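The protein record quoted in full:
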Amino acid sequence: MSFIIQSNDVYKNTELSINHNECHCAPVNGNIGTLPTLFHQNGSFNHEANSYLFYQKSVKDAKDLSPCAQALHAYYQFLEDKGLEWDKFPPIKRLKPTYLFRSHLLKRIKRGELAHSTASVRMNQIVNFYKWLMHNGYLRIKNEKEAPFKLEFISVQNQGMLAHISPTFTVTTSDLRIKVPKDASSKSIRPLSPLSQESLSILTQHLPNASEELRLQTLISTDTGMRIQEVATLSLDAIDTATSLAESEHRYEIVLSPQSTGVQTKYLKQRRVEISSVLLNKLNEYRTSERRLKRINKLNLKLKGLPVTAANLKQAAVEKLQLCERHEPLFVSEQGNPVTGKSIEARWVELRTLIKKTSPSFTHRFHDLRSTYGTYRLNDLLEAGLSSMECMELLMDWMGHNSESTTWKYLRFLKHKEIFKTKFGLLDNIMHEALKDNHE
């Protein structure tokens, strides 16, 4: 069985030396951090796949190689299981390994083992992998019959703001593509799962059992729609950008930006998110609390010793600490380390496990807090009399969606779920209930 190992730090430039008939490779510069490394079932190094992963990280500056690595792992595992070779393409289409892999993914979808969206991503990753192989000479194609797939040009309906000028546009794809159902309620793709009023009430009852950090992180995501990585990297600089909204004395906006405030947003885009005055005040209280300052002191000691310890740390850890030097994080672990999305998720799972002992139906992910904000906030905007387009534009900006279709999903959800047609003020009440124990 093929397998993946997360390598140690990888360098773009190295120096080869020979000492006593032994070759030694020493790093020089260009540390790109760790890389997922793929091996064949016999333990041999997968040269083509790993060269592609190196290219993605060092040249394309890919931030997350997980989808690519998982797709390559699944593909090579399929090839091994079927006794196929990655570079052998019979003239008959249905016998080519790429088309056989597509059929394999479709069968897994039909059996309920794989989501359409996951299968689509994996197939796209393999297509891009083969494009790179052909471009860089790893795979030489003499004629069309030997090609791993056939390129296609399709016309796509433009749903953007300039659709009236250019109603369609053409994109290049392949005949290997796997379509994802547009209906967000389909069982084949992950639907929106916002917390109902009952689930919110249950969560509120159990939040006092969580640590102060998790309690605040939960409320931040619910009140602002911030993603888990954005919550983890929320900085004091971001909080200091708070400006009150002219139309409301109870809500503010803060700036999330990898460049100016250090908050690691998806797509590295700068945006503003709204936040309630109650929560903003609570965050400002927490930033000066003795509990947090003890943690910050431990972090500062690590930052002070970074020039000495950096050589013994992974590049990813060094980069996180360097980010803390530029922008002091709001949340720090008890050991003095910058909080990560994974650590927040782990604490959430612990809380969810506790909740399920008395409420077995509570199966929500931390990410569902984001859709909770989006759903209730959208309904509140609609109730205020704004047009659907105005609501979509506001919510798209606040939530940082890269595509209008993602935001429209919330509107379609509301139309089918009358139970969520409740004013956003409910979330403010939840906020009050969750925080009041600290003032009593």
The first strand starts at residue 3 and ends at 6. The longest helix spans residues 116-135. The radius of gyration is 25 Å.
